[in-house]
Specification:
alpha+beta; four-stranded antiparallel β-sheet; Gyrase A, domain 2; 116 residues; 3 helices; 34% helix; single chain
Length: 116
């Protein structure tokens, strides 16, 4: 852990932080969410949107990309666990991937929510 990095959350703190983030789970040392899409063009739009927010935050998730889905995995390597940086980026990713009216990213309403 870097001297300026806050300590990572405990398992119970992670569980509490994930409560409002439906579909996110803590697994294999990262918080994760799989977004289902209707195909490659929508998947690429989502990946690019996630990339924009990640670059702006200087905090980069691991992405597993396939034809109809994107899995996002976040953790703060320098802190050795999950921190507020991960939770905040998860919130931003969740907002950009929402398909409800008023969401900031809505290419054509094609995203399909999972885990709900």
């Amino acid at each position: 852990m870097s001297p300026t990095e806050p300590p990572p959350y405990t398992d119970s703190q992670i569980a509490e932080q994930l409560k409002p983030l439906r579909g996110w789970r803590y697994e294999r040392g990262a918080i994760r969410r799989t977004f289902k899409t209707d195909g490659w063009p929508t998947t690429l739009m989502l990946v690019n949107a996630i990339g924009f927010y990640a670059e702006a935050a200087d905090h980069h998730p691991d992405l597993q990309v396939s034809w109809g889905s994107v899995e996002v995995a976040l953790n703060t390597h320098s802190a050795g666990g999950i921190t507020a940086k991960d939770i905040e980026l998860a919130r931003q990713i969740e907002q950009v991937a929402l398909f409800e009216a008023g969401a900031p990213f809505r290419p054509s309403g094609k995203f399909k929510r999972t885990g709900i």
